[in-house]
Amino acid sequence: MQSVTARRRRAGLPSLRPAQAAQGLTPAQCCSDALIEPIADKVGLEIAPTQRHNLARNLMKLMERHKIENAGLFLERFNRDAALFDDVIAEMTVGETYFFRDPAQFDLVRKKVLPSLLADRPERAPIRMWSTGCSTGEEAYSLAVLADQMGLADRTQIIATDISRKALKVAREGHYTEHSMRGQAAERIRPHLSRRGNRLRLREKYRRRVRFDQFWLGEDDLPCPAKGIADLDLILCRNVLIYLRPDVVQRIARQFYRCLAPGGWLLLGPSDPPLWDHAPFATFVTRAGILYRRDPSAPGRVAFDRKGAVTVPASDEASPPGEPAMAEEQTVGQRLREAKLALGEDFLARCIQELVGIGALDAAAALVKEAIGVHPLSIRLHYLQSVVLIAADRLHDAAAALRRLLYLDGSLAAAHYLLGTCLRESDPETAGQAFAIAFALCTRRPAEEPVELMEEYSTGRLAIRIGREIADLKLSTRDGF
């Protein structure tokens, strides 16, 4: 039997970090599992069960690298050794970022948020922004370039924070590679980069406009005027809260609300947990995601275009559980959840992919099932459902999902290929037929053409992979297929 990781690699599915399965651990490695809970509690992280085995193994490797003999010494060093702290945080989180990631959200900031902040305020009054969980700085610098393009460079004050000292060092230096330029929207920043060999560096005028500082979102107090984290007009906290425990998220939601100036805005990532139950934000559901806003001190200060958006103010956070206000709040949450499902396939697909990427497979499976209920003819959502099920090692269910997808569109080489990988061990004959169809579909197309639903592959590259699968399958079955 192949491991889940091997099946995912064989299928060409995107790798998950940490991986969703691991080979058996030695007793010495298993003891490092005792480190996970104390560290996760200290930094407020939520560690999914599917992540624990590989994380335990990686922590053991850190013990060896730092020459630490046991878990007790490891925890002691973790509290005082900056290098070890950064290494542990790097293992427990994913610092995935690039310039203008989720461009629709930056368009929302440009078209809605910043114009609303400019309304009815003095001409030279500053606009204060905070990029929290900034990693190596691409998000903060994208904000700086956006402000410059809008003629607001001299009015914006951008603070960017992260828990990792290593990431902040990279951010301050402004050195990047093409890896930070993924996505067409990242081209917006290329004119502001200079190249030396394979390295790119952001122009100094943008580096000067962002102030980087270490901040521990799960632990440090907020607001924090000493670091400039108070009276903010915009907070970006994208793809950070998905890693934190629910109780930490609840506390941070209230802190964010207090950090915002009246009329200030908060923008989260597509897969971050909702905050409407935890603080009295006004909430706007848009096609780019969910915006939260602290009510203006004076009515009518901000004119926001509500066309295409659902606006629901949350109940007062002081309402005790069980009171009528709480019941009303739960109704609000249900309405917003339904609104999120209605945002469109692309938004939902991004949410599902983010959840798979962090190993939150149960949440991804639940969301994709609900999303298909809203968009029953979406081939991308049906495909993502099969990806989630394969990642969870539910190959029988994944095969059923792929058959439903092929009923909608039988010309999808990616679906035939994944069906073959799901059935390779349980039904080699049908697997061989699925591989043969996928191979034929690929060879009918130009070799450089991207494969639908598996755009990271060209048809020529996928055909080569399928050819190897067919050869391996013939070798593993006595009579072929």
Automatic annotation (TrEMBL):
<dbReference type="GO" id="GO:0008757">
    <property type="term" value="F:S-adenosylmethionine-dependent methyltransferase activity"/>
</dbReference>
<feature type="domain" description="CheR-type methyltransferase">
    <location>
        <begin position="39"/>
        <end position="297"/>
    </location>
</feature>
<dbReference type="InterPro" id="IPR022642">
    <property type="entry name" value="CheR_C"/>
</dbReference>
<keyword id="KW-0808">Transferase</keyword>
<dbReference type="InterPro" id="IPR029063">
    <property type="entry name" value="SAM-dependent_MTases_sf"/>
</dbReference>
<keyword id="KW-0489">Methyltransferase</keyword>
<dbReference type="Pfam" id="PF01739">
    <property type="entry name" value="CheR"/>
</dbReference>
<protein>
    <submittedName>
        <fullName>MCP methyltransferase, CheR-type</fullName>
    </submittedName>
</protein>
<dbReference type="GO" id="GO:0032259">
    <property type="term" value="P:methylation"/>
</dbReference>
<keyword id="KW-0949">S-adenosyl-L-methionine</keyword>
<dbReference type="InterPro" id="IPR011990">
    <property type="entry name" value="TPR-like_helical_dom_sf"/>
</dbReference>
<dbReference type="InterPro" id="IPR050903">
    <property type="entry name" value="Bact_Chemotaxis_MeTrfase"/>
</dbReference>
<dbReference type="InterPro" id="IPR000780">
    <property type="entry name" value="CheR_MeTrfase"/>
</dbReference>
